[in-house]
Amino acid sequence: MIPPTKSYHVRNRVNPRIVCRDGVSLSVQFGGDAHCEPQIDQDCPWQDYDSVEVGYICDENNKFIFPPDHWGSYQYDYKVMIWACVPVTFVEAFIDKHGGEVRTTQPQ
Questions:
Q1: CA 1 to CA 14: how far, in whole Å?
Q2: What is the distance between the alpha carbons of residues 59 and 65, in angstroms, rounded to a whole number?
Q3: I need a surface site. Which of 14, 28, 52, 105 has the fewest CB within 10 A?
């Protein structure tokens, strides 16, 4: 079960989960109170940061899964499923490996 993210982040804005085509989902957070670089609020997408905070990666059945082994040094705390300052290129490659991000559009 994915824990509520509003208790983790103090800001009012929590970015929505990214859902991949194969059903894998992850939380990608960035800004002044996230473990990212630069650690400032910018009016830009997460891909414009050097690194981002990634957490609560789940499979299609909402069960926690681990990212690739080379993310190991970025794990924030072994008790929580959060990885700090993960290079954006790693996150993009992970999403691509899982079929890319599912994009939804507003009905016209």
A1: 18
A2: 6
A3: 105
